[in-house]
Amino acid sequence: MTLDNQTGLVLEGGGMRGVFTVGVLDYLMDHQYWFPYTIGVSAGASNGISYASRQRGRSLFSIVDLPAKRNYIGLKHFVQGHGYIDLDFLFYKYPDRYYPFDFETYRKTKERFVIVTSNCLTGKAEYYEEKENLDRLLEICKASCSLPVMCPLSYVDGIPMVDGGVCDSIPVRHAMADGFEKNVIILTRNKGYRKPDKDFYLPGFIYHRYPAIREQLRLRYRHYNEELDFIDRLEAEGRALVIRPEKPMEVERTEKDTRKLKALYEEGYACARKVFRFPEKKSPE
Fold first, then answer.
1. How many alpha carbons fall within 13 Å on the CB side of residue 39?
2. How distant, in Å, are the alpha carbons of 43, 137, 168 from that of 144?
3. Residue 106: is its pLDDT beyond 60?
4. How far apart are CA 249 and CA 239, in angstroms?
5. Exposed end of the chain (fewer CB within 10 Å): N or C?
6. pLDDT band at 67 (very low <50, low <70, confident <90, very high)
7. CB of 52 within 8 A of CB of 113?
8. What one-character-per-residue DSSP string does 176-214 give?
9. 104: buried, middle or exposed (CB in 10 Å: 19+, 13-18, 0-12)?
C-alpha cells in the first residue's frame, strides 16, 4: 500500500501496551512523517496527541520514566477515588510538573487529530476534534482513557463518558467515513489474537443509570473480534497497512515492569523501520 495525502493513521488503545505504538510514532517523528489524519482511542489518543504536537519522547517518558518519579497506577489511587490509573494526575498535573504539552504547536498543525470516547447515555462512540481550547482537549483525552470500573466516569460538555474503546475499539471505519479509505493501523496485539468468547459480567449496581453502556460492555468482545476480522480483510485487500507486535503480548494493561515496557517500545520502533523503510539519516561527520 502506497502512503499519500489520503492515508489515515488509526491507533488502538491497550493501556501500557500502547508503548508499542509509541515506538512506531517515535520512528515516524524521527523521519518527520506526519499523516494528514490520525484517530486514536484510549491509550492511542493519549500517545497520539504527543505525535500530533511533534513531541518525540513525551509518551515514552510518561510510560517508562514517570512512574519512578510519581507512580500513578495502583490500588492506592483507586481507594483515594482517583481510579486505579490516576488520570487526573496524568492529564493535569503531569504536563505542568514534568513534561509540558506543546499546545501551541498542536493548535497550529494542519493535520487532523480525532479522539474517540464512549457516551454513557447513548452507548455510542463520540468523535472529537479540538484545537482551540486546551482544557476541553484534555477533558476529551481523559474521557477516552477512562477505563470502565477502574476509573471514575469522565465528562465532556457535561456528558458522562468512559473509555472510547468500549464503543469503538479500533476506529478504522470512522477514518474511512471521514474520507480516508486507506489506513495504517497500529494494533497492540499480535496477529491472530481474539478476545475470549464470553460476555462481560458487570454487577447490577455498576453503571445502573446507564443501561446502554452496560450493554456495550457486555458485548464488547464480539464487537472487538468483528473489528479485527474486518481489519484482516482490509489488509488482505491492500486497503490497510497493519503494524502489530510480532509475538504474543507479555505486557499487561497496567504493566509496571520497566524492562518489559522498554522491550515492547523497541519492538514497535523496529516494526516501524521494517514497514516504512524511510531512508536512514546519516550521522553528522
1. 27
2. 8, 11, 11
3. yes
4. 26
5. C
6. confident
7. yes
8. HHTT--EEEEE-SS-TT----S-PPP--TTTTTT-HHHH
9. exposed
Q: What is the CB neighbour count within 10 angstroms for residue 35?
A: 22
Grid cell, residue 25, equals 510514532
In eight-state DSSP terms, residue 125 is: E
- Chain centroid to CA 284: 35
Would you state the pLDDT for residue 285? 40
The DSSP annotation for 63-124 comes to IIIHHHHS--BSHHHHHTTSTTBTHHIIIIIHHHHTS---HHHHHH--SEEEEEEEETTTTE
CA 115 – CA 135 distance, rounded (Å): 14
Report field, pTM of the whole predicted structure over 0.90: yes
Grid cell in block for residue 146: 477512562
For residue 129, which phi and psi values (nearest 5 degrees)?
-130, 130
Query: 142: which 3 cell numbers?
Result: 481523559
- 154 phi, psi to nearest 5 deg: -110, 165
Residue for cell digits 510510560? 63
Q: Whats the size of the chain, residue-wise?
A: 285
Question: Bridge partners of 8?
Answer: 37, 183
- CB contact at 8 A, 195 and 225: yes
